From TrEMBL:
InterPro entries: ATPase_AAA_core, ORC4, ORC4_C, P-loop_NTPase
Taxonomy of the source species: Eukaryota, Viridiplantae, Streptophyta, Embryophyta, Tracheophyta
GO BP term, pick one: DNA replication initiation
Organism encoding this protein: Vigna radiata var. radiata
Protein name: Origin of replication complex subunit 4
Family affiliation: Belongs to the ORC4 family.
ATPase AAA-type core domain residues: 53-199
Domain of life: Eukaryota
UniProt cross-references to PANTHER family, sorted A to Z: ORIGIN RECOGNITION COMPLEX SUBUNIT 4
Keyword Mitochondrion: no
């Protein structure tokens, strides 16, 4: 096999790992949420007992990913002893639609005819009957309730019916609630809470140390026949050196300060792997820096790219007024500064007041500037005080990135900066 093939294969292997939740979350550490969740559900299956568990944590922390890995593992281990019913609070928070969806999925699972005309009570009784039959057949029904807190609104009839049916010794079910609200169990009514098992798993964003371990786990190539031994060893050494490098840690910390969730960390890693140099076949510090700069969204700079020359002039005028300790200004004061700047630099372009007013209103629409209060709503736009919503550094960077920006505007910002 040619060296180029190994380099391409390395990129493909790393990408497939990043996109594979099983590789990322399937670890056998006793303290991991994967191990805890798998133990609780498998115990319910093997011991024929009921259970209810809440998976809590911010979005992107891996709740759904870990649950899916656990369910897939259990379906392989107990293919004839598990059926999964999935509901989402964004779609099924209404009790009627929730019971109808449960009945539909149960009918599909057990190859029964589903009746769309069935009433709420019919579907509720059907669910209880199926749970009883599954219990007698030693089959566990797993209910996955995403956005669990939305089911805890209103009369909570779905939750009460589910948990109450699980009190019977003949039923065999597990209710798994997934929520971003850490106080989701406190939203439950007393009658529902008394039937809940109060088992909770907390998913937290990874720390700096955990993030480094995860990166090493994903990026380390196997030392076996699939890659040349020397190449894999050197690749792993370079990855280890990058992760331990102080500059890389600073870049990673900046990214984690923006969003420390596993989901966004994997996105960052995928982007870094995609920028791997195929000539050398190794990841470098630059790969991660490019990934950081490409992922980091800068909406203000994106808006600046779509601004006209006149709008850039208005923004620079407002920034100059800020430097002159006039952070609050209105359209009339901006026009005075605009005229002063035109007279100083003798520019060829000078727009009429009406054209400038339309550009000023467009900047308000883009939210590059904003009215400082609502008390002057009856006043004309020209007289209402406004303030900039963009920093000097962002404006300076935006002007430099703008291809057709007049050179004197950049010089002005250099002088003010």
């Amino acid at each position: 096999m040619e060296p180029e093939n190994h380099k391409t294969k390395a990129v493909n292997v790393l990408r497939s790992r990043i996109c594979d939740p099983k590789f990322i979350f399937n670890n056998d550490y006793p303290d991991s949420n994967y191990s805890k969740l798998k133990f609780m559900i498998s115990s319910s299956v093997t011991e024929a007992c009921n259970n209810s568990i809440l998976l809590l944590g911010p979005r992107g922390s891996g709740k759904n990913a870990v649950l899916e890995v656990v369910i897939q593992d259990l379906l392989q281990e107990y293919p004839d002893s598990i059926s999964v019913i999935r509901l989402n609070g964004l779609l099924h928070s209404d009790d009627v639609s929730a019971f109808k969806e449960i009945a539909r999925q149960l009918c599909m699972e057990h190859q029964l005819l589903f009746s769309k005309a069935a009433s709420f009570d019919d579907n509720s009784q059907f669910m209880v009957a199926i749970l009883r039959e599954c219990g007698l057949a030693h089959k566990t029904v797993i209910f996955v309730l995403e956005e669990f807190d939305l089911f805890a609104q209103g009369k909570q009839r779905l939750l009460y019916s589910l948990l109450d049916a699980m009190q019977s010794i003949t039923s065999q079910a597990v209710v798994l609630g997934i929520s971003c609200r850490l106080d989701a169990d406190q939203l439950l009514e007393k009658r529902v809470r008394s039937r809940f098992s109060h088992r909770k798993l907390l998913f937290l964003p990874p720390s700096m140390e955990d993030s480094q371990k995860l990166l090493m786990h994903i990026l380390k190539l196997p030392i076996d026949s699939s890659f040349p031994h020397d190449y894999a060893t050197e690749f792993n050494t370079k990855v280890q050196n990058i992760i331990e490098d102080r500059k890389f840690k600073e870049t990673l910390q900046k990214y984690l300060n923006v969003d420390s969730s596993v989901k966004h960390l994997l996105r960052f890693l995928f982007c870094a792997v995609s920028h791997m140099d195929l000539q050398t076949g190794f990841l470098s510090q630059e790969s991660f820096e490019i990934a950081f700069s490409s992922i980091q969204r800068q909406p203000k700079l994106e808006c600046l790219r779509n601004c006209s020359n006149l709008e850039l002039h208005i923004l620079v005028c407002m920034k100059r007024l800020e430097v002159k300790e006039k952070s609050l200004c209105n359209f009339n004061s901006v026009m005075k500064e605009y005229k002063s700047m035109h007279d100083s630099f003798r520019t060829s372009e000078y727009y009429s007041r009406n054209v400038c007013l339309r550009a000023f209103e467009h900047l308000l629409h883009l939210e590059m500037i904003y009215f400082t209060d609502n008390r002057g709503q009856n006043l004309s736009v020209e007289f209402r005080p406004v303030k900039l919503l963009i920093s000097s550094a962002e404006l300076h960077q935006g002007l430099r990135a703008y291809n057709s920006c007049p050179a004197y505007l950049i010089k002005l910002m250099d002088r003010e900066g």
